Every structure is written in C-alpha cells, then in structure tokens.
Amino acid sequence: MTIDTPQISRRRMLITTAGVGAGLALGAAPGRAQPKAKPTGQAVIGLSQEPTVFDPRRPHIEVDDGVHMALFSALWMVDPSGTMQPRLALEVPTTANGGISADGLTWTVKLRPGVKWHDGTPFTSADVKFTLDSVMAPNFPAYSRIGHSLITEIQTPTPELITWKMSKPYAPYLSILAWFYIVPQHKLKDEPMTGGPFVQNPIGTGPFKWQQRVPGDHITLAANEDYFGAGPLLQNVVYKYIPDLTVMYTQFRAGDIDYIGLQGISADHYDEAKKISGREVKAAAQSSIENFYFNLGMPQFQEKAVRQALYYAYDKDSIIQQIYYGIPSNAECYLPKQSWAYNSGLPQHEYSLDKAKAMLDAAGWKPGADGIRAKNGVRLSFTNSTTAGNHLREQVQQLLQQDFQQIGVEMTIKNLPPAVMWGEYWIKSKFETAIVGIYFMTGPDPDASVYFHSSSIAAKTGSGQNTMQYSNPEVDRLLEQGAAETDRDKRIPIYQKLQQVMRDDLPYLPQQQPSTIEGTKAGLLGYQPNGNVRLNTWNLEAWHWA
C-alpha cells in the first residue's frame, strides 16, 4: 500500500529531493552536491506470470514491463497523478517550453547529460534515434508502430539534443513515449531482426542491471550505482515466478516474498490477508479491464448477433459478487471509470438466457442432434484459455461453460502456463477465446489504437496488440480522429462515441474493472500504486527497507 509518511533512516537522508513527492527517484540535476546512499538489502517480487521478453521494442505483456521499468529508461514517465516526469529527457517537451511547436509537428527533446549504459558506454541522442528507427523497420516485429509511423525525419544535432517532424499532430504521442524504452545502439545495431544475444544479457540505463535468469523460476537484478537518478536504494531485486495464485499467497503469508503484485492476492483471500501481522495489504482500483476476448478471425464469431447472445448469457453479477466477492466493479467498455473520457451512459448489461436463445434462433443458428447450434456447417463450439493456476478465472470459465451450454454453445477449457499462454499463442492470435485483463489506454490517454485499430493486427501486419483481429472502419476512423485532435474537450465526445460503437459491436465482452489486492512486507517503503502504468513496480528505484 502507499505509505505517505515513511520512517526514513539517517542514511536515507542523503537521498536528494529528486525522488520525493510521487515516489519517483528521478534524475537529479548535474552537479549534485550530496552523494547517494549506498544500496542495501533485497526485495523479492512475486509475480503470477513469467517475464520472457527482454527487448522492450518487441511484443510483450504487462509482466515484462516490470522488468523493462527497472532495466531501461524512457524519455519520461507518468506518475500517479497523470503528470509526465522527465527521465532521459531533461524536461518534458510542451508548447510552453518550446519542445513542441504550436502546430504540433516539430518536437525538440533535450537529453540528460552524463547518462551511461550499464556497460559504461555513454548514452546519446543516437540511441534515441536508433530506437525510433528500429521499430519502424519493415521486418522488425515491433510492439507497436502507432504514433512512431508519423515521424518523417529525425535529426541529432548534438549528443544531447534530438528533434523530429511529425506528418500530423498526434495527441497520444506524449503518452506513448512514456512507455517507450530506449535501447542501446552499440549493442543492437548489428543484431538480426529475429533477435540475438542481447535478450540473454540486456543492458539499459535504468536503476537496475541484469544479473541472472533461471527460466521458470526467477530473475535477479542488481543495483546500478551509476544510475542518473536518486536511487536505487535496494542492492538486489528478485522477480519470483509463482504461477499458482494460492501458492503465491501462501509464500507472501509466510514471508518468502516481500511484494505480491500483478494478479496480486485473490479476492477470496482478501479478508484473511488484511489480518496478517507484518503485512500491508490494500485493494486499489486498477485501470485494466477484465474481458472475454474473441479471436474474430474464426467463423463462429463473425456475426455480431453471436457475440451479443453470448453477452446475454454472461452472468456478470454472479461472477463479480460470488467469485470476486464484490470487490471489482462492472465494466461496459475498455476505459476505467476514472478516465476523463469515460462514457457513463452506456447500456447496462442484462443477463438473460432466454434472450440469448432468441437472438441465436433469429440469426439462424439451429441446435443440432447434440444440442450444439450450427449454421452453414459451422458449429458454435470453441475453446477458452487463460493462465493455468488462476483459480478465480478458472471458476469464471466453469460458470460460463454451464450457461453457454444452456443456450446451445459448446465451450471447452484449454488453460496454459503463462509463458505459453501469453507467448505466440496470444500475440499471433492462435487462441479461440480467452479470459484476460488488459490495460487498453496509452498511459493516461484514452487512445487504444494499438488494441483496436485494424493496422495493429500483429498476425497480419507484424506489429501491434490487436490480437482479437478486430477490423471496423468506423472504429478506425474514430481512433484516428481522437488522436489527431489536441483539444481535450473536443476529444471527449469522440471517445465517448467510440465506446458506444464498441459496446454495440462487442468485439470482446467487458466483464469488470478490477481492484487489484497487492501487499508488501512491513518495512518495505516506496511502493505506490499508479493507475497510469501496467505494473506497480514503476518506481522501483525508490523502494527501500526502513
């Protein structure tokens, strides 16, 4: 939980004020008068999924971000208030400070001097240019090219200055760059597009350095004592991979892990967890949305009537109240309720098996001899997958399986280990349906082009996160219109219309906005929830023991 007034030892008082406030151990100005405190101690971070992607430019999921945040640096990051804070940049560019031209087309970024890569090589503007150029290379499997594709030219007049032109204004780009980690040109310029030795020993400019990985078990990072910011304060960080949520909770309760995050403590253990001596446990509303995801490339899901019928058969109230103990709130769209663009006027879900049957009947899906509906030779049958060991999602699957069976739909369960589930099976759209929690926004920005725009279907284009293979011209148009408008007041109705269109079309079935229950061992200070990032280890350089 957030600790507002930690007890700080005398040794900690050596830390500069650059890390105070939002918990960011951000870069102090060159010529710092006071020395850093020497890092001490170790924190064990328990994660239910295994980080496997160590080049942040490539397709990856939330758990990989946890490692990226510690190893690499972005030009700036976003704090819990939604404010951009400089990292590799000396300041966040705005029109007021001249970093962004009045027409939004020219960007000038001043870089922090004296920054070094973990191997001691100086960081320069050439690294930023290389990273931007590389994700736009035609054969590179990029996480996303959204926003970057608008850059028309990049100039590096000095090692500490980079400028670029945009073909048109793009409001979300500031937020995109807050998640865009810079990689070292000198290590990657000669590596093949398919990957090379870098992922076995990645180096960055972040507060921690790569030390060891034991696949299937843990990753250990060591303090980067040459970090440009005010931290790190821990000597080591261990990411412990524990796929079974009950086992992870048991280890947290026993004191074997110091922080339990990502999926966190399951709702059925919340009341007990709050009473554990020597632990700080709190439920914090998240910005992700738990969904039932379709692979729309499959013939079963081409008709909107099928998706709408399945939504009628989705007993969301029982899921939220009985399986998740009423902790999450209902969701009807991709945006969390705290977003400035959230549409509170969307139709509210109705659970009705009779309406689901009637809708399928009207659409021509007729029950066969085995009771399973079919149309034009296509049976309304599919598999559903999620992370093996997530027992609450597994209960959701069992409930859905029973209700879907009652309306003539066959759903079989095919759960996989996290490294398999969220690998190519997910990224290359090899799943049929999935239960997944996704942070759709771009930082605090409501743009979700990387998930919904037809140009972001990785299985077809080679980049993006549109794993459901959704293609809707109206959605594409609204996403493009919302991103091109820089006036927030004018953007709001665009994104509210987008939510209306998608609530009707239902390319996925929104289930709930979770409140993740996270816990820390007493005395581990610096942890602070941040709804604008995908993992709450965003400020790991500020974590320390009292």
Describe the protein's architecture and organization.
- The longest helix has 18 residues, at 488-505.
- The chain has a seven-stranded mixed sheet with strand order 7-8-9-1-10-21-11, sandwiched between helices.
- It has helices spanning 62-71, 125-135, 173-178, 185-188, 245-254, 270-273, 304-312, 316-323, 353-362, 391-406, 418-421, 424-427, 449-452, 458-461, 473-484, 488-505, and strands at residues 42-47, 76-78, 84-86, 106-110, 151-158, 161-166, 208-214, 218-223, 236-241, 259-260, 279-285, 289-294, 329-330, 366-367, 373-375, 378-379, 381-385, 410-413, 433-438, 508-513, 515-521, 524-525, 544-545.
- The chain has three domains: 1-72 and 206-286 and 516-546, Periplasmic binding protein-like II (D-Maltodextrin-Binding Protein, domain 2), CATH 3.40.190; 73-190, Dipeptide-binding Protein, Domain 1 (Dipeptide-binding Protein, domain 1), CATH 3.90.76; 289-513, Dipeptide-binding Protein, Domain 3 (Dipeptide-binding Protein, domain 3, Roll).
- It is globular.
- The model is unreliable at 1-33 (pLDDT under 50).
- By secondary structure, the chain is α+β, with helices and mostly antiparallel strands.
